[in-house]
Design goal:
The complex is a heterodimer. Chain A is an alpha/beta fold. Chain A has 13 helices and 16 strands. Chain A folds into two domains: 182 residues, 3-Layer(aba) Sandwich (Rossmann fold), CATH 3.40.50.970; 119 residues, Rossmann fold. In chain A, strands 2, 3, 4, 5, 6, 7, 8 and 14 form an eight-stranded mixed beta sheet that branches. In chain A, strands 11-13-12-15-16 form a five-stranded mixed beta sheet, sandwiched between helices. A two-stranded antiparallel sheet of chain A has the order 1-9. In chain A, helix 1 runs parallel beside helix 6 and helix 3 packs parallel to helix 4. The N and C termini of chain A lie far apart (55 Å). In chain A, 57% of the residues are buried. In chain B, helix 7 links the parallel strand 5 and strand 6. An eight-stranded mixed beta sheet of chain B has the order 2-1-3-4-6-5-8-7, sandwiched between helices. Chain B contains twelve helices and eight strands. In chain B, helix 1 crosses helix 2. Classes of the chains: A alpha/beta, B alpha/beta. Chains A and B meet through helix 2, helix 3, helix 4 and strand 10 of A and strand 2, helix 3, helix 5 and helix 12 of B. Strand 10 of chain A pairs parallel with strand 2 of chain B, so a sheet runs across the interface.
Chain lengths: 385, 281
């Protein structure tokens, strides 16, 4: 049984989190993500979970890491400026491999920018915001129903791969109201918990790759497995070890932990790309306009398609390369001055032309605006022939 | 009470020694006192979490056989708070230095105190940033020399216990590495206290504070602690001029009538599950 609702993206994130089994939220109010905090404050205690409005953004994610060490699925949400404040702790979560979900509902920045206007200016911050070499996952929903699904998936991925997962939204997706069908009961929807040790406490090595997956088993604090968490470079015992070999081993495992599982982690969507000559590459809110525009272009006889990265980090390099082999032009459309386009160019390496339609004026593109860009791309292709 | 050797065997992780502290450093004395307190209170190792920030003293968490985390500079309290929320049954002991706790982590200190969450915070106050080589902290006495104060500090220092009490801490205590039995006693009481407790452990850093301030000999720092720490009962009888430069030790403040945070939170869950949003108080 299910119920059909008209719901805001931020509320769908709340429901997705509750369904996924998130039972702790620590965060600080910031537009345009605040409805997530408000929703969690109401919903979590109803299911026996706990919500805290912390003194600042740092404490928000700090409490999340602490709760996660205690074995509870935990989440926080913010927007660009707060996301910056959380970055140090995201590095800690990468290094110590503490599962957590961070929602960033992007607004125009830097600084206060335009708090109620959409942007995708944090796409590189999501990947490279924290310090040092690090690996994490980011996913980006394009609709309200997908806010629910991807929040669940973000929790699942963070538990499975023991890393921070960023749910990168934008103001349009966060505040838009849309039809969503939610199950009456969330039973059976909880994300699988992190892998538990299958050895005795005496034999437990907190960071040992015991099954070749590169993901160590993680015991809950208080479960009888006493182990040590540190942000210092550590070996499989979890204790600091800074030798060149230990440092390299640690970095290699953290990198390949995600690289080895890209087939599982990286999700993309193709819309009418089979015979497309021009493929719009867009994610999140920017992708919404593109479905309709692809149809409009097709009606004009332009062979257009849409490629939508759902997992935006790790970058869908193989899929983009394959696309570049069989199409002529990739038209990257993003709500910033051009960030993700560089990743696309680096994957395409001249196999197709790459064009950028950057929209950075506080508003998402209208179908006509995007269609005009496709027509321009078409002219260039035909002119080149 | 067990001897130190026995406590080391019981509570130190095999193979983690030697520690990184300098000869004459008081951090080992504070950690020893903490282990004595934990042992005397009869806590099970599985039921204790020790969460620290960054700095010399925060390395203590790695040496001891509990659920432990050596986290980020200033952030031990938020991480401890989240853990306590997830596992209220755990005895969460937070270790922090004077810089870690009162400078970069100062905001977390006042809010943890305000919430009265059941953490036991042990502040290793050595008056200096030791790990980075001797820069002044908010607890460095005014007029001290530091590598970042070659012309002496002009900033007044916090009374961290008065600060915590004003913010809402329901237990404050102080002792020094000279007054070890008192330190053990106040740590025991702090652990037993249900709400937020803060224990300031005055400790010496001969290497990075002492050398710059004519107190290079560890024994001289102990002497200083002995001469300047005054038991609370005696302190209360001193007039203002007699208190000048000295500080009270022992339990300085305790109240038990305020509900601990995670227990108070259970009421929120009850209200939410009863299906009613709270009428405003």
């Amino acid at each position: 049984m299910s119920r059909v609702l008209l719901m805001q993206g931020n509320q769908a994130v709340v429901e997705g989190a509750i369904a996924a089994g998130v039972r702790f939220y620590g965060g600080y109010p910031i537009t345009p993500s605040t409805e997530i905090a408000e929703g969690m404050a109401k919903r979590l205690p109803e299911v026996g979970g706990k919500f805290m409005q912390t003194e600042d953004e740092l404490a928000g994610i700090g409490t999340v890491l602490g709760a996660s060490l205690g074995g509870v699925r935990a989440m926080t949400a913010t927007s660009g400026p707060g996301f910056s404040l959380k970055q140090e702790m995201i590095g800690m979560a990468c290094s110590a491999e503490i599962p957590c979900v961070i929602v960033d509902v992007q607004r125009v920045g830097p600084a206060t920018g335009q708090p109620t206007s959409p942007s995708q200016g944090d796409v590189m911050q999501a990947r490279w915001g924290t310090h040092g070499d690090h690996w994490l996952i980011a996913v980006s929903p394009s609709s309200v129903p997908e806010c629910f699904d991807l929040t669940r998936r973000a929790v699942e991925l963070s538990e499975k791969y023991r890393c921070p997962v960023i749910l990168l939204m934008d103001e349009v997706i966060g505040h838009m109201r849309e039809r969503i069908e939610l199950p009456d009961s969330y039973e059976g929807l909880a994300a699988a918990r992190r892998k538990q040790p299958d050895v005795t406490p005496e034999d437990y090595l907190a960071y040992a790759d015991t099954d070749g997956s590169k993901v160590p088993a993680m015991a809950d604090f208080g479960s009888g497995y006493r182990w040590h968490v540190t942000g210092l470079v550590h070996d499989e015992t979890g204790f600091p070890k800074g030798t060149p070999a230990a440092t390299k081993n640690s970095q290699d495992r953290l990198r390949t932990k995600l690289e080895d599982h890209e087939d599982d982690i990286v999700q993309t969507e193709h819309y009418r790309t089979e015979d497309a000559e021009i493929v719009v590459v867009a994610f999140g809110g920017a992708a919404r306009t593109a479905y309709e525009v692809v149809d409009m272009a097709r009606n004009e006889g332009i062979h257009a398609g849409l490629f939508r990265p759902i997992t935006i980090w790790p970058f869908a390099e193989r899929a983009v390369r394959e696309l570049a082999e069989k199409t002529q032009c990739l038209l990257v459309h993003e709500l910033n001055c051009g960030q993700y386009v560089r990743e696309v160019e680096s994957a395409v390496q001249g196999r197709a032309s790459v064009r950028l339609y950057a929209k950075y004026d506080n508003e998402p593109a209208t179908p006509d605006e995007l269609l005009a860009e496709i027509r321009e791309a078409e002219k260039t292709i035909k002119g080149a022939k | 009470m067990k001897g130190m050797e026995e406590l080391v065997d019981l509570y130190f992780r095999p193979g983690r020694l030697p520690h990184l502290w300098c000869p004459g450093c008081g951090n080992g004395v504070v950690l020893g006192a903490l282990l004595k307190a934990i042992d005397a209170e009869g806590l099970e190792k599985d039921d204790v979490a020790v969460i620290s920030g960054i700095g010399c003293s925060s390395r203590a968490s790695g040496y001891v056989d509990f659920n432990t985390a050596n986290t980020l500079h200033g952030r031990a309290l938020p991480i401890s708070t989240g853990l306590k929320m997830a596992r209220p049954e755990l005895n969460v002991i937070t270790l922090s230095g004077d810089g870690d706790c009162s400078a970069i982590g100062g905001n977390h200190l006042i809010h943890a105190a305000r919430r009265n969450i059941g953490l036991t915070l042990v502040v290793f106050n050595n008056s200096i940033y030791g790990m980075t080589g001797g820069q002044y902290s908010p607890l460095t006495p005014r007029g001290s020399r530091a590598t970042t104060a070659p012309y002496l500090t002009i900033e007044p220092s916090f009374d961290i216990l008065a600060l915590a009490q004003a913010a809402g801490a329901t237990f404050t205590a102080r002792a020094t590495t000279y007054h070890v039995p008192i330190l053990v006693d106040v740590l025991r009481k702090g652990i037993r206290h249900e709400g937020f407790s803060i224990i300031e452990a005055v400790t010496g850093c001969p290497t990075n504070y002492g050398r710059q301030n004519k107190l290079a000999a560890p024994a001289a720092m102990m002497e200083w602690q002995k001469e300047h720490g005054v038991m609370k009962a005696a302190w209360d009888k001193l007039d203002e001029p007699a208190r000048e430069g000295k500080f009270p030790i022992g339990v300085l403040y305790e109240r038990t009538d305020l509900k601990e945070y995670t227990k108070a939170y259970d009421e929120i869950i009850e209200r939410a599950q009863a299906g009613k949003e709270a009428a405003s108080a």
